[in-house]
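4.2 Preliminary Data

To establish feasibility before requesting continued support, the project team ran the inverse folding procedure on a target of 279 residues. The structure was first converted into the token representation described in Section 3, and no sequence information of any kind was made available to the design step. The complete token record follows.
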């Protein structure tokens, strides 16, 4: 079965994996090389990602790394508006998601600035109006799993049964969203959000289990600590590990890869597709 997404009246068929490039319009993202705090850097970053083969762009104006500065809704919206306007001017047709847990910010991005998808790290937990807003807007919604909040998620995360609890989390929220009338839901296991190193690799090892929901699956592991805490190094030295995990994710059924390094992800996808077509 081929999944489809309704992007403001345009249907996008996920016939092959999509590469979602990350555009951080923040001054304090965990991966410093991805920060684009002004229009010049945003423009350069967007052009680079599209030239390298990005299928989608995800714009974030609020850093979710532990210890990051809080950002007011007004400042977050100003950052997102700046990024969205540049993307829409350069590439009017590229699918764009906005990475926010705030319903009002998401609504403004969709209604006023032409964003297509809402990407919510909190799964509706940090703003009770988010599910209702998603349903009313009728746009695709990336539903991510997170235990706790960005400030607390990595303070001794614990599960009695990791996979059971994560799957139940999704089952309950997907049901609630569907009852409200939400249309296109994308599942994101939330690697690195309220999970130990062992939790992350247990979920990765069983990634194919998420197919039970019959929904598109997004994986975002780009340069995260689950790589460099295992292999040593920093986010800056974690491209190779990212590519390995992206490739594993494709084999295990990922439909969208959210990445900092578009070229490497596109190459991993090309190799995966060549193997799949000659199976």
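Position-by-position output of the design step:
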């Amino acid at each position: 079965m081929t999944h489809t997404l309704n992007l403001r009246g345009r249907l996008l068929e996920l016939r092959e994996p999509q590469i979602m490039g990350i555009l951080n319009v923040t001054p304090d993202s965990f991966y410093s090389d991805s920060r684009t705090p002004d229009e010049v850097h945003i423009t350069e970053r967007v052009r680079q990602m599209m030239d390298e083969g990005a299928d989608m762009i995800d714009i974030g104006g609020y850093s979710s790394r532990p210890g990051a500065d809080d950002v007011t809704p007004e400042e977050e919206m100003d950052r997102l508006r700046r990024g969205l306007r540049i993307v829409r001017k350069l590439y009017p047709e590229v699918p764009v998601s906005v990475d926010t847990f705030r319903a009002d910010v998401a609504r403004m991005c969709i209604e006023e600035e032409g964003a297509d998808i809402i990407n919510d790290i909190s799964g509706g937990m940090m703003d009770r109006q988010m599910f209702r807003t998603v349903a009313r807007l009728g746009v695709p919604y990336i539903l991510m799993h997170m235990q706790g909040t960005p400030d607390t998620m990595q303070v001794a995360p614990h599960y009695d049964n990791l996979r059971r609890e994560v799957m139940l989390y999704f089952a309950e929220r997907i049901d609630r969203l569907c009852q409200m009338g939400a249309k296109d839901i994308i599942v994101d296991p939330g690697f690195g959000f309220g999970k130990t190193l062992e939790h992350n690799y247990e979920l990765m090892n069983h990634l194919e289990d998420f197919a039970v929901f019959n929904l598109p699956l997004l994986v975002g592991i780009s340069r995260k600590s689950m790589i460099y805490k295992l292999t040593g190094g920093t986010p800056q030295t974690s491209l190779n590990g990212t590519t390995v995990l992206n490739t594993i994710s494709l084999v295990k059924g990922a439909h969208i890869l959210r990445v900092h390094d578009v070229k490497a992800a596109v190459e991993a996808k090309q190799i995966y597709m060549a193997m799949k077509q000659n199976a």
